[in-house]
Amino acid sequence: MEEAEKPEARYGLAAKIQYGAGLRLSELIRLRIKDIDLERGTVTVRQGKGGKDRMSVLPRSIVGLVAEQIEYARNLWEMDGRNGQQGVYLPGALARKYRRAAESFEWFWLFPAKQLSVNHEIGVMRRHHLHDKVYNEAIKRGAKAAEIEKQATSHALRHSFATHLLESGTDLRRIQDLLGHEDITTTEIYLHVSMGAHGMGVESPLDALCG
Questions:
Q1: pLDDT per residue over 140-183, tens digit each?
Q2: Is 11 a catalytic residue?
Q3: Is 129 labeled as catalytic in the residue annotation?
Q4: Whether 181 is catalytic
Q5: pLDDT in tens, 18-41
Q6: Catalytic: which of 30, 127, 129, 181?
Q7: Which residue out of 114, 155, 173, 198 is catalytically annotated?
Q8: What's this model's pTM, rounded to 2 decimal places?
């Protein structure tokens, strides 16, 4: 079976990190090696929504897989170096502040693209991160293979992270911090989701009788 037919083989780990850490799609695909702390079990989001940094949890169950992904990324980074590529992309302000950072492995993508591409801002051929559309298509293929009939998007993984934490008793403000919500009212949306369709937090006595 070809790789395109097995979305779990290439994108499964990305999906596990997105669900396990509650990341936005843009935050997931832009993760760099330095944002992962295997020993402490943390994921650091740099310049998330609102331009703020935050920290979330790296699931213990995938630490080994993440370590393997880091080594895969290292092999690509070393190959690019041998082929004379000019390091990894950094935004203008970062590039000016850390002039040699683009050549350092710690700034390389955790999920690098398979192919090199031209950075149109500066006209340099470099390896970009995993493309959001490519990842989303993999999510859809995975949902279809699992015979999930509901609409499947990568953002559903972030929603599930919040909902499942709330259902397990995690404090709402802690979830707010993990998600990077500026306003607690945004996080409170998950109260309705976790309580069920009625949003009342109770079971109808009729349902109890019919159960």
A1: 888 888 888 777 788 889 988 998 888 888 888 999 999 999 88
A2: no
A3: no
A4: yes
A5: 999 999 999 999 999 999 999 999
A6: 181
A7: 155
A8: 0.82
Is-catalytic flag, 155?
yes
Please pick, among 49, 126, 128, 164, the residue that the annotation labels catalytic: 49
- Residue 4: the pLDDT is 36
Active-site residue, from 6, 24, 46, 140: 24
Token pair 């993999």 in the structure block, residue = 138
- CATH number 3.40.50.720 is the correct assignment for the domain at 3-149: no
